[in-house]
Design a protein that fits this description.
Elements lengths: L1 E3 L9 E3 L3 E3 L4 E3 L12 E5 L9 E4 L32 E2 L9 E4 L3 E2 L4 E8 L18 E4 L15 E2 L9 E2 L3 H4 L5 E4 L9 E4 L3 E2 L4 E8 L10 E7 L2 E6 L4 E10 L7 E8 L8 E9 L10 E7 L2 E7 L3 E10 L7 E8 L8 E9 L20 E9 L3 E8 L16 E2 L3 E8 L2 E8 L13 E8 L2 E4 L9 E8 L5 E9 L2 E8 L4 E5 L15 E5 L6 E9 L2 E6 L4 E6 L8 E7 L3 E10 L6
Antiparallel strand pairs: 1-2, 3-4, 5-27, 6-8, 7-27, 8-26, 9-26, 10-25, 10-27, 11-22, 12-15, 13-14, 14-22, 15-21, 16-21, 17-20, 17-22, 18-19, 18-21, 23-24, 23-26, 28-29, 29-30, 29-31, 31-32, 33-44, 34-43, 35-40, 35-44, 36-37, 36-43, 37-38, 38-39, 40-41, 41-42
Length: 604
């Protein structure tokens, strides 16, 4: 095993494995990946060799030529790390002018007439997020506090109350607005003498006269983690009624408060900096009143497929100047008109995107990372270690169920993540190759509870979602399922369901991949890289697909087939979301057997 961060197949933290021979001195691996992967044959949409050819360029005019320039760039921009993995001479490279400029590149419309759209993508790992906007200031916003004080004027001179190291301070002139996201020339910062400065700033009183208050906040995101808060508070009658904090980024974004029930009341804004560690400061600007909540600005570096005005597929880089293949399954949009948007709305670190060689094909392109053998294809299995000489001479593996992309933002306290289930490893020949297979250690069966066991046999699931009896529901479950392929494109289970929440554990019959979709699993605003669909290859055993799933209060662990494909993901659903369902898409699937058992707590 080799644990690595970043660079895992699902992004961020993960673990590879290697199979080979050990002669007592040297290990020689058999499963070494060499050479660049070749994409499936297809029809080229854009190779970016000479010009943008009908694409619309929207460069930010405030900073030089903008990120995309007038045409594709021949390789590496001066000052950039070496760019690799593109094909031919040129590519889309939005590092022109460094990371500060922002802009968009939009393709002509085209018809989706093949099953897959493949493209090379690199650059920053800033994904597209639903519910974001490109508007810089909300429409109809009424400024309440703008921090545009006269040069040299302190907060106290403007009527603010200050304590600690924030006494006798004044707003600062910010750099180019695209670098910090502020409005106007000045902004509030508590970064004086590095992060060691602490104190509070309390604004003069103002009246709440609209339904929403929104403000720009950046830098420290410390709440009640024991290290000292970095937080903006809304006070009414001296009491804290709303709070907002940063996102551990130097770029500010909108935070919105619904203050409908506080209309007509007198309020104050209080800036609190109690933290002296990393990101122990706040950036704040432009408190505004609006009738509707201000949407967060998009800070993506992403390629989006847009159908009927909606983003239906998206890809981003991995904070790397090496481009890699992305393959989108677009079968469900067959015959529809669409276009691509290449967006660079980020001015921070890795605030650029690389794109090349967009093509239609009948099979998905395989990324370089997908060619390696991975211990787990989920986002949350890292730092795995084995323990020797367990009872019976077993060796047991335990991994940390978390990812350094968002570990510090997990909505749990006082812990951050948990350990995955203890696993036993073995080698097995599958499809002619020696593969690592995994299963939970046998002692896990001792947690099977005394509750009712739900079983189902030889049941056809039609297209749609099938509810199961209450005996199948629960928040801590062991699920063993065997499906027989019919004509469904995708099928599987929905667990921890309720209202609009669900975690989908499915199988894509066309792509032959097992997947977990946690985009609607509950609280997903853990970080921009938390929501997503994570998948791994799983061949069909005859016409059968088998999976064993362990559902817990804040995680799912999926073992596919004989355990050759595993997916481990954290989830944070509402405690009452406990429904289990079956689903099929595009056709029928046969459930040969389904057994759902409640599990007891490991602690009691």
């Amino acid at each position: 095993m080799v644990n690595l961060n970043p660079g895992a197949v699902a992004g961020g933290s993960g673990a590879q494995y290697f199979v080979g021979d050990w002669d007592g001195t040297r290990f020689t691996a058999d499963n070494i990946v060499t050479g660049d992967p070749e994409p499936p044959a297809g029809t080229l949409l854009a190779d970016f060799e000479h010009e943008y050819a009908g694409w619309t360029v929207e460069n930010d005019p405030t900073l030089g030529p903008g990120p995309f320039g007038a045409g594709p760039y021949p390789g590496t921009v001066p000052g950039q790390q070496q760019v690799s993995g593109f094909r031919g001479r040129s590519l889309v490279n939005s590092f022109l002018g460094s990371d500060a400029p922002k802009g968009r590149l939009v393709s002509p419309d085209f018809t989706l007439d093949r099953d897959y759209l493949n493209l090379l993508v690199g650059g920053g790992a800033h994904p597209h997020l639903r519910g974001t906007t490109t508007d810089f200031v909300p429409a109809g916003a009424e400024p309440v506090i703008d921090f545009e004080l006269a040069d040299g004027q302190t907060y106290e001179q403007a009527g603010w109350a200050a304590t600690g190291g924030l006494r006798d301070r004044a707003p600062v002139v910010g750099p180019a607005r695209s670098e910090r996201g502020h409005v106007g020339d000045k902004l509030l910062t508590t970064f004086f003498a590095a992060d060691s400065t602490t104190g509070t700033l309390t604004s003069p009183a103002f009246t709440i006269d609209r339904n929403h208050l929104s403000l720009l906040v950046g830098a420290g995101g410390h709440l009640d983690d024991g290290t000292g808060r970095t937080v903006v508070e809304l006070l009414v009658d001296g009491q804290v009624v709303r709070t907002a904090t940063g996102n551990f980024s130097g770029f500010m974004n909108w935070r919105s408060w619904d203050v409908t029930e506080l209309r007509g009341r007198t309020a104050q804004l209080r800036i609190v900096d109690e933290n002296t560690g990393g990101w122990g400061h706040l950036l704040v600007d432009h408190l505004v009143a609006t009738d509707e909540p201000a949407l967060p600005r998009s800070v993506e570096t992403a390629v989006n497929l847009v159908v009927d005005g909606q983003v239906v597929r998206t890809a981003t880089g991995k904070d790397s100047e090496r481009l890699d293949w992305v393959g989108w399954d677009v079968r469900e949009f067959a015959g529809r008109r669409a276009h691509l948007e290449i967006n660079d709305f980020n001015s921070g670190g890795w605030g650029h995107i690389l794109v090349d060689h967009v093509m239609f094909a009948d099979r998905p392109a395989q990324s370089e990372l997908e060619r390696y053998d991975w211990l787990d294809h989920g986002k949350d299995y890292y730092a795995a270690v084995t323990y020797n000489d367990a009872p019976g001479g077993e060796r047991v593996a335990v991994g940390w169920m978390n990812n350094w992309q968002y570990a510090g933002s997990a909505p749990t306290a006082p812990w951050r993540g948990a350990m995955a289930l203890p696993r036993e490893f073995a080698l097995r020949t599958i499809d002619g190759e020696v593969r690592l297979v995994q299963r939970p250690t046998g002692q896990l069966t001792s947690l099977r509870g005394d509750g009712e066991v739900f079983t189902l046999h030889d049941a056809t699931v039609r297209p749609g979602v099938r509810d199961l009896p209450p005996a199948a529901d629960g928040t801590v479950l062991e699920i063993q399922a065997e499906f027989e392929l019919r004509d469904a494109d995708r099928f599987g289970l929905q667990v921890r369901g309720g209202d609009d929440e669900r975690t989908v554990i499915g199988y894509d019959a066309g792509a032959r991949r097992l997947y977990v979709d946690r985009t609607r699993s509950g609280q997903v605003d853990v970080g921009p890289l938390f929501p997503g669909v994570h998948s791994g290859p799983l061949s069909v055993d005859g016409d059968r697909v088998r999976m064993t799933v362990y559902v817990d209060r804040s995680s799912v662990e999926v073992f596919g087939g004989a355990g050759q494909t595993t997916i481990t993901d954290q989830i944070f659903p509402t405690p009452t979301s406990d429904q289990t369902r079956l689903f099929a898409e595009g056709g029928d699937v046969m459930v040969r057997s389904l057994t759902i058992r409640p599990l007891r707590s490991v602690w009691r």
